[in-house]
Write a structure and sequence with these properties.
Shape of chain A: globular
Number of domains of chain B: 3
Largest sheet of chain A: 9 strands, mixed
Distance between the termini of chain A: 90 Å
Helix content of chain A: 40-55%
Mean pLDDT of chain B: 89
Number of helices of chain B: 7
Strand order of the largest sheet of chain B: 14-11-12-13-26-25-24-18-22
Low-confidence stretches of chain A: 353-410
CATH architecture of the largest domain in chain A: 2-Layer Sandwich
Strand content of chain B: 35-45%
Number of strands of chain B: 27
Low-confidence stretches of chain B: 1-13
CATH topology of the largest domain in chain B: DNA Polymerase III, Chain A, domain 2
Oligomer: heterodimer
CATH class of the largest domain in chain A: Alpha Beta
């Protein structure tokens, strides 16, 4: 067979190939269109989808609109209004490639109706499977309405790779939410046949507005749990809201980053978040976070990824350092603050039980309301319709007996006249210890319940860490250096970081290509798995996480702290309880133990009053 | 169902009846049952093999890496073999009356073994003896024998330095080999965990020359140590590059060897350390122990400050305070400050025999030699800590 001659590809085919890169699923098309709307200065953006975007995507905005001449050009490849100076290094808009509309036009039926503020009438154009129609006059309001019908109708292969309508619709919703987070001043609505409608009113453009918008998207609790952050260094501003470490989630889907108004999922930034929260979150848990990085467009390259979800900073070290230090400072300043969630949970549980308690009181006397011992577990049982009297009485009778022993305070520190200063402290004055593990303290405006083991564990851990920082790390020199074989690139990376590792007690040197000889290890880790330590260090370096060796040392300290702290079951004297509360107030991150569990919950007096219907 | 063979014939090789003295059986079981792991995924590894033949009862247990066989005199009524759970059998025999006779008999039709002693009677489930693994097979070309206590000394003095870290598996045992040292053949045992090294030697026994260097795994080392406890006869050692077999009296222990290359330990033994320190061993060990009380954490460091005729030991722990102790020593070189892990120092001084200990140092970052005296058979190398 003769070789086929080389020929130039048909332009429509070229567009379809390119479309595969830019428009991989309906959500990507929505992203492009909404970004265009934002770039057009819209104040309200409405998105409607049908069949997960497969049948119809309609994005309507009230932005600047286009003239008929612009409209004709807009659907051509590499035509855009967005790089006026032709400077790819100073991109101030979300889009710039000029690829979105022609790509969509190549794989769907695209129709655009647009009108500028001073035009007498709107202009419309239709592109069907890459074939461009003429610009026609049409009726339309100011702004632009883009409709995409039969997405991927021209590329059936792509259709097969789409997920269910519902899954695609959720992906669209996710994109809209993320863009909405970045632009609180714009009103966003999303409606579709398989998802519930999202309607986010315009909030304004200050930080309070950003927090309101964030709360609508990541959950109303975020308002209480958010730590405001706003720092600036060398022209880079990092601002937004970081969640308290105790309000953690199972996935990183609530970590939202915006770079110059563009939602991104960036490794550098997520690595920095992991590093900053490493010490205060349980393993595999993620914080809730809505933060932005604003800087001169010249300092960041957004032209890295076709979907622009990754960015490259000119000075990654600066950004990373700024993020980590700002987050750490905010977490440290929050100090012993635990999430309000604990208090809320407690309140809900108590409040939910109230009606049943009332009914029970009619025949079991005063004990029922005190039945907090098994609140969560026994809640359902109480919620069931009342059984006969005899049946109902038995369980409570036995509980009655337990009460006499279990509910007797282990220590009693009833109010004294002289504890006024303690009452003013954030965690208040200790009143009693119950179940030999929980300290009940009274503050000026509420009640605090402290888990003594968790609290003390954190205190011991922080002290050990401070000690290590003060003393430096003792190193055991190896008699027989351990040679670890690595990928040559990895070995070079480790050796480049040798100074950093040495400060942490790990001394490595090159041992031919692709091998590293470990000469000294931190004494506390001696006898352990050196290769594993090195690999951990390498992973941490790759992720740009801080202090890989310290992380292992921290783990050792953490287990020492766990064994070295007071156990639950130990009865504390009033003085000991108060001392623990005072230590918690001055210990960083005392709001959660080393495993990320909260160390205390607080009930405000107003909450308690609510429980009793006084408010 | 028709019975086609006579009872005698059908029981050949399976029916066993043997009577033994309880104390002798307990001693044998004591040797073999330790090899058996408490939890096994292969059921037969929980069992001990009992084989009665020609006036002897042979017991055998294995974990597939290590096998121990012990033979004892017995009154064999019917020859045969079976396997029963090792720990259960050991516990039963342990609880039987002292001085009792124990009869072991397999019951052909139920597949059980009956143990009778006095008025006690136990029936144990058995597993077929044909399934019992045999790791001892194979040629062991090298053979020599040496006094039990010589071998015990080699093991006792090096065992503490065996590494417990699994990734460097070739350090998880004692390296035995012969070498020419100052014109005479010696048998050497070497162990190291990468921080310290122990090297002990004894004159090479007849026939040991030319043996391959072998690494005996930790579990086998511990078992050999127990077997040698109190033994005074000679021990026969047989070797191949993959296996070692020791015969101590009536006990035969066979172990697989660690398949790896022991590092070239000679390179880490310093030759040029010129600063010599001689201390009274007990006084030194007690002083190290005392000052290290103050440090609480793992990898605790003790600092040795050496100046003319004087050694100052000190430990500082910002959390609890500090400790110093000064002892008179024999030291004439230039002053030197060096840090060591206190536990390592105590481990090593605990192995020394003499009244004094000889340290040879170079600088705070180089290996230090520790011995009883110049030319002693045991030599220790310890790496300092940086504090």
């Amino acid at each position: 067979m003769a070789p086929s001659p080389v020929r130039r590809l048909d332009p429509v085919l070229v567009d379809r190939i390119a479309a595969g890169e830019v428009i991989e699923r309906p959500a990507a098309a929505v992203k492009e269109l909404v970004e265009n709307a934002i770039d057009a200065g819209a104040g309200a953006i409405e998105v409607v989808i049908e069949a997960g975007g497969r049948r119809l995507i309609r994005v309507t905005d009230d932005g600047r609109g286009m003239t008929p001449q612009d409209l004709e050009l807009a659907v051509e490849r590499h035509a855009t209004s967005k790089l006026p100076d032709g400077d790819l290094f100073a991109i101030g808009t979300l889009g710039f490639r000029g690829e979105a509309l022609p790509s969509i036009g190549a794989v769907a039926r695209l129709s655009i109706v647009t009108r500028t503020a001073d035009a007498a009438q709107a202009a419309a154009i239709l592109v069907d499977g890459g074939a461009k129609g003429p610009v026609r006059p049409a009726a339309g309001a100011r702004g632009t309405r883009v409709e995409i019908a039969d997405l991927f109708g021209a590329t059936p292969a792509r259709l097969k790779f789409l997920k269910s309508d519902r899954a695609e619709a959720l992906a669209v919703a996710d994109i809209v939410r993320r863009l909405a987070l970045a632009h609180p001043a714009i009103r966003f609505t999303l409606a579709g046949d398989t998802i519930s409608t999202i309607d986010l009113p315009a909030e304004g453009s200050d930080e309070a507005a950003a927090l309101r918008r964030a709360a609508r998207i990541v959950g109303a609790d975020f308002v209480d749990d958010a730590l405001p952050i706003d720092v600036m260094r060398e022209g880079v501003r990092v601002h937004g809201f970081a969640g308290l470490p105790t309000a953690h989630r199972g996935s990183a889907s609530h970590v939202h980053w915006m770079v110059n108004g563009r939602p991104v999922r960036d490794k550098l930034l997520s690595g920095a978040v992991r590093g900053a929260y490493a010490d205060v979150l349980p393993a595999d848990r993620h914080p809730i976070l809505v933060m932005s990085v604003d800087c001169d467009p010249r300092e960041v390259d957004v032209n890295v990824h076709p979907a622009k979800s990754e960015v490259r900073f000119r000075d990654p070290g600066l950004v990373r350092g700024l993020v980590v230090s700002a987050l750490r400072a905010a977490i440290a300043a929050a100090g012993h603050r635990a999430t309000a969630q604990g208090g809320r949970d407690a309140l809900q549980t108590l409040a939910g039980r109230q009606p049943q308690s009332f009914v029970q009181r009619t025949f079991v006397g005063w004990q029922a309301p005190v039945d907090t011992g098994g609140t969560a577990a026994s809640g359902d049982a109480h919620g069931s319709p009342l059984p006969g009297f005899a049946e109902a009485q038995t369980p409570f009778r036995s509980q009655d007996e337990q009460i006499s022993s279990a509910f007797l305070p282990a220590a009693d520190a009833r109010a004294h006249a002289d504890d006024a200063p303690a009452l003013d402290a954030p965690l208040g004055a200790a009143r009693a210890q119950i179940h030999a593990n929980y300290i009940v303290a009274q503050t000026r405006d509420g009640l605090v319940i402290v888990d003594q083991h968790a609290a003390h564990e954190r205190i011991v851990y922080e002290r050990l860490k401070a000690e290590r920082a003060a003393r430096g790390i003792a190193r055991q020199i190896l008699l027989i250096p351990e040679v670890v074989d690595l990928d040559p690139a990895d070995a070079d990376r480790l050796l480049a970081a040798a100074g950093l590792l040495e400060a942490a007690g790990l001394v490595v040197e090159g041992f031919g290509p692709g091998a590293v000889a470990v000469r000294e290890v931190p004494a506390a880790l001696a006898g352990g798995d050196i290769k594993g330590l090195l690999r951990d260090a390498l992973d941490a370096l790759l992720d740009e996480r801080d202090a890989p060796v310290e992380a292992r040392l921290d783990r050792v300290l953490s287990s020492i702290a766990c064994h070295g702290s007071i156990r639950s079951g130990r009865r504390l004297k009033p003085e000991e309880m108060n001392a623990l509360l005072r230590q918690m107030e001055i210990t960083p991150s005392a709001g959660q133990c080393n495993h990320g569990r909260p160390t205390y919950v607080e009930l405000k007096l107003s909450d308690i009053e609510k429980l009793f219907g006084r408010r | 169902m028709a019975v086609s063979a006579s009872p005698d014939q059908s029981n050949v090789g399976r029916s066993m009846k043997v009577t033994v003295e309880r104390a002798a059986l307990l001693k044998s079981l004591g040797h073999v049952h330790r090899v058996v792991e408490r939890r096994n995924t292969i059921p037969i590894l929980s069992n001990v093999l009992l084989r009665a033949e020609a006036g002897e009862l042979r017991l055998k247990a294995t974990d597939l890496d290590l096998e121990v066989t012990e033979t004892q005199a017995a009154d064999v009524e019917r020859t045969g073999a079976t396997t029963v759970p090792a720990h259960v059998l050991y516990d039963i025999v342990r609880k039987l009356a002292d001085g009792a006779q124990v009869s072991l008999e397999t019951i052909g039709e139920t597949g059980q073994m009956q143990i009778r002693s006095g008025r006690s009677r136990f029936n144990l489930q058995t597993l077929p003896q044909e399934d019992f693994p045999d790791i001892a097979a194979g040629e062991l070309p090298h053979s020599f024998s040496l006094p039990a206590q010589d071998l015990k000394k080699l093991i006792d003095k090096t065992q503490f330095a065996i590494s417990t870290e699994e990734t460097r598996y070739y350090l998880n045992g004692i390296y035995f080999h012969t070498i020419d040292s100052d014109g005479r053949q010696v048998l050497r045992a070497v162990a190291t965990d990468g921080h310290r090294l122990a090297r002990v030697e004894t004159a090479a026994p007849q026939g040991a020359g030319g043996m391959p260097g072998v690494i005996v795994p930790r579990k086998a080392v511990a078992e050999i140590q127990k077997l040698l406890d109190g033994a005074d006869a000679d021990v026969t050692v047989e070797l191949s590059p993959a296996k070692i077999r020791l015969t101590v009296g009536s006990v035969v222990l066979t172990s697989k060897l660690i398949d790896g290359t022991f590092p070239d330990y000679q390179r880490v033994i310093p030759a040029g350390n010129d600063k010599t320190l001689v201390v009274e061993r007990d006084m030194f060990a007690q002083a190290v122990d005392r000052v290290s009380t103050i440090s609480s954490e793992r990898g605790r460091a003790v600092k040795l400050a050496l100046a003319d005729g004087k050694l100052t030991l000190s430990v500082t722990n910002p959390d609890s305070g500090s400790a110093t102790e000064e002892i008179e020593v024999d030291y004439e070189a230039s002053p030197l400050d060096v840090g060591f892990n206190a536990r390592y120092l105590l481990d090593i001084t605990g192995q020394l025999d003499g009244d004094t200990a000889l340290f040879k140092l170079a600088d705070p970052g180089s290996p230090t030699l520790i011995q009883d005296r110049e030319g002693a058979p045991a030599l220790y190398v310890l790496m300092p800590m940086r504090v």
